[in-house]
Automatic annotation (TrEMBL):
The chain crosses the membrane at residues 12-32, 52-70, 82-102, 108-128. The lineage of its organism: Bacteria, Bacillati, Actinomycetota, Actinomycetes, Micromonosporales. Keywords: Membrane, Transmembrane, Transmembrane helix. It comes from the Bacteria. This is Membrane protein.
Length: 130
């Protein structure tokens, strides 16, 4: 393999991480600086133009990262039970994030984000390896 191809996973993971961080930073803009709500989701939740930009950056980065992880799964050498547990944890995290928008308990998003974070912290370094 050429040196350019060997460094590709690491560069791509770094690019996706930058997109994700940029999206999260845009989503952290205080509600007073976001402008009017374009699409109300539920009481207390709505999508503004700033939120749409942050969500788009986050979605592109996270989807690209997921594709990288799935394409490298055979090379990660994780046992089937570990892969199942990580997938279950990430799925539970996504479900809790989505449910937090529609439930009365606002802080479920933090539990969901922590669950996704654990799965990401395990899989991303393995994906970035050569």
């Amino acid at each position: 393999m050429s040196p350019d191809v060997e460094g590709a996973p690491r560069r791509q993971v770094a690019t996706t991480a930058l997109l994700i961080v940029a999206g999260v930073l845009v989503l952290f803009v205080p509600a007073g600086g976001e402008g009017r709500v374009l699409l109300p989701v539920s009481e207390g939740h709505g999508l503004s133009a700033v939120d749409a930009v942050g969500a788009a950056l986050l979605a592109v980065g996270a989807t690209w990262l997921e594709v990288l992880v799935v394409r490298r799964l055979p090379h990660l050498a994780l046992p089937p039970r570990a892969l199942f547990a990580l997938g279950l944890l990430a799925g539970l995290g996504v479900g809790l994030l989505i449910a937090s928008v529609f439930s009365g308990f606002f802080w479920w998003w933090a539990v969901g984000a922590a669950a996704i974070g654990v799965a990401v912290l395990v899989l991303v370094p393995l994906t970035a390896r050569r």
